[in-house]
Amino acid sequence: MSEFEPLRVAIVGCGNISGAYGSSLKTKPELIKIMGAFDVMTDQAKNFVNNYGGKVYEKFEDVIADPDVEAIINLTSHHAHAEVSSKALSAGKHVHSEKPLATNREDGKKLLDLAEKNNVRLSCSPFTFLGEAQQTLRKAIHDEIIGKPLIAYAEMNWSWIEKWHPNPEGFHQPGAGPMLDVGVYPLTILTAILGPVVKALGYADILLPERTIGSGPKAGQKFMVTTPDQVIGILTFASGCIARITTNFFGYSRQGGIEFHGEKGSLIIDTAVDFKSGVSVRNIGDNDWKTVPFVLEPFAGVEWGRAMFELAESIRKGTPQRCTGQQAYHVLDICLSILDSAKKGCAVPVESTFIPPPPRY
Ligand SMILES: NC(=O)c1ccc[n+]([C@@H]2O[C@H](COP(=O)([O-])OP(=O)(O)OC[C@H]3O[C@@H](n4cnc5c(N)ncnc54)[C@H](O)[C@@H]3O)[C@@H](O)[C@H]2O)c1
Asked: So what's the pLDDT on residue 3?
């Protein structure tokens, strides 16, 4: 028997990723109840509701006016996140937003203020630091199995997004691009484990300005890339650790995951996203890598409802959730600082900070 009533949620934005959310959310009806869905393209919402239940909302205003809806899951396109989240928070709804939190600092800050003012929760992707492999990595670092971590290398080389995504233009516009779209995965893990970043140095370029859509109704259409499609950041953490993160939207890469190199050895996670990624350690003097045992039984793949399951439980129990708006804002600030630095040609301070989430183990 369930400890409490499931959190009643509505989905806003029913595109590519909504199916992964819908099917995952349906696995824990004791935690989440889908009340309905809205999309500016009504057929998308109809399709979602046919598969995952609830009703179709004809207008966004109807979603936020519905007293039965407690929380909004914002799966809209990058550039719509801030407006949708701010209206939902203003209406007194809890919000979980897909990444990035917003596309600029002003909007991001406004969301933090609105959540506080209205006494509602603001949660944001990426939630993959909650994965069992990522928690295993966290414990290994915090147990100092490689001693003090000195430097980390993260790779997020995400290939030609427009070849598989039917609606890729927004991924290549200012406010998105590879650092804000996928760099946020390792950045959220790095900051969850190492704490806040204080300085960023960036290098960024548009290397392939003209792209051709490869799938869906717009296949064959060309469009222009208007934000860097390769972004490299070098970060200094308050802890003193340094990290280099490489992101791009082209090429097939065999490099992935995150490496940590410390005083006593090296630690690697094979990917930043998969909850069952391998975690290995090699200390000074070892002849080979050793597998680090998982601290929790791993989910195979990505459990897309994970942040919502956490949020539902923490709202009902009155405890803080681990995916916070503050961390998402700090990650946004890091991404924008890397891009600012790339423009200026010198390192820039990262002004924001946050309190890292507690472990799950
Ligand atoms: N596609 C993926 O693999 C993936 C994975 C993880 C996270 N995400 C994130 O999920 C979000 C959505 O990505 P996607 O791939 O599903 O994009 P998408 O373009 O396929 O879907 C976005 C949907 O939002 C709708 N929309 C746009 N503005 C809206 C508004 N103001 N109100 C209501 N609906 C609106 C669009 O009509 C569309 O159906 C992005 O933030 C992305 O970063 C995507």
From this structure: 79
